[in-house]
Amino acid sequence: MMRALRTAASGMYAQQLYIDTVANNLSNVNTTGFKKSTVEFQDLIYQTQQSAGSVRNLGTVIPTELQIGHGVRPVAIEKAFTQGSPVSTNAPLDLSIQGEGFFKVRKGDDTIAYTRDGNFNRSPDGRVVNADGYILEPDLIIPEDTIDIQINSEGYVNILLVGATEMQEVGQIELAKFANENGLRALGKNLYRETEASGPPIYGQPGIEGFGEVAQGFLEASNVQIVEEMVNMILAQRAYEVNSKAIKTAEEMLSLANNLKR
Questions:
Q1: Is residue 223 within 8 Å of residue 83, measured between CB atoms?
Q2: Phi, psi at residue 194, to the nearest 5°?
Q3: Of 26, 63, 118, 150, most Cβ neighbours within 10 A?
């Protein structure tokens, strides 16, 4: 019964973590480029009290194991990098990726981070930056006297200046992808950074070699499905309740055993 208390407690902790993850998903349902998380669980070690194949006193062979499990533990929280729905904004520097890939931005500490959030703007010096002022890499300069910006599906950036009659190319957007996207570390602010588990970034041109295309005037919505998350919340809540009842039942059994009298 003491074993049952600890086993059920591990289940309650696991479901609490599950609820925390679902709550984070729901809180980011309107976050641009957000990718939902899922929790992975594993059962713990087993105590073998009778081994299959062992021989009884009368020579018979035991056909099955007699094992008692010791609960559950969370082993991973994985991001689901499925495509979010495109949302039209008509803003010239709002970009979404239709397919695989990440935008590359340079943070204030000069490190590189990766994002699916394509909500970009012009800085006072004409650079293309995200909402936190991180510079889009490769660096793009949009002159102050620009009256039109056009970005095609392959990431080529063309601008029209005041008094000009033809567009001129000022650069191309580059995308990055990884052998193991789930190995990326979330930094908050819609950013990720590479780790040993993700592997090094693979850079490429939008629309070729497996990279997604760039869509101007669109942002990628979160891939969180509210109904799915609400169902997950109900399942986690019920599992938590069941484990709490297992603890209560084990405690009542211990109380009965403690109160036995001769």
A1: yes
A2: -75, 155
A3: 118
Q: Give strand pairing partners of 203.
A: 176
pLDDT tens for each residue of 240-250: 999 999 888 88
Give domain limits for the chain: 2-81+224-258, 86-220
What is the C-alpha to C-alpha distance for residues 118 and 92, in angstroms, rounded to an integer? 11
What SS3 class is residue 237? helix
Contact 74, 44 (CB under 8 A): no
DSSP 16-71: HHHHHHHHHHHHTTTSTT---EEEEEEE--EEEEE-TT-B-TTSPBP-S-EEEE--
Q: Which of 234, 236, 31 is nearest to 115 (CA)?
A: 31
Q: Check: pTM over 0.90? Answer yes or no.
A: no
- Please list, in sequence order, all residues whose beta carbon lies within 8 angstroms of the beta carbon of residue 82, skipping any fewer than 6 positions away: 35, 223
Q: Which residues share a beta bridge with 127?
A: 141
Q: Of 87-96, 106-115, 245-254, where does mean pLDDT reach its minimum? A: 245-254
